[in-house]
């Protein structure tokens, strides 16, 4: 994540801080936004599984 993207996300998060928001809450929100960015990049690269593939693999994992 670039420093510009971090700044953008921190400003977005800062605008939503409410009474009782902890630093851990902010870290979690920032991590979630980073995960979303990563997932979108993976999708653009075609690094995704179809629903059928997920079902098939999960059946193997849950044996």
Summarize the structure.
The chain has 63 residues and is mostly helical. It has 3 helices and no strands. The chain has one domain.
Number of domains: 1
Residue-averaged pLDDT, rounded?
93
Number of extended strands = 0
Number of helices, where a helix is a run of at least 4 consecutive DSSP H or I residues: 3
Largest sheet: none
What is the SS-derived class?
mainly alpha
Helical residue percent band: over 70%
Which stretches of 5+ consecutive residues score pLDDT under 50? none
Overall shape: elongated
What's the alpha carbon Rg, rounded to whole Å? 17 Å
Order of helices and strands: HHH
Gap from first CA to last CA: 37 Å
* Strand residues, percent: under 5%
Describe it for me?
The structure is a single chain. With 63 residues, this protein is mainly alpha-helical. The chain has one domain (3-61). It contains 3 helices and no strands. The protein has helices spanning 3-14, 23-44, 51-61. Helix 1 (3-14) crosses helix 2 (23-44). The radius of gyration is 17 Å and the shape is elongated. The relative contact order is 0.10. The mean pLDDT is 93.
Draw up the topology in text:
Layout: H1 3-14, H2 23-44, H3 51-61
Helix pairs in contact: 1-2
What keywords describe this structure?
63 residues; mainly alpha; 3 helices
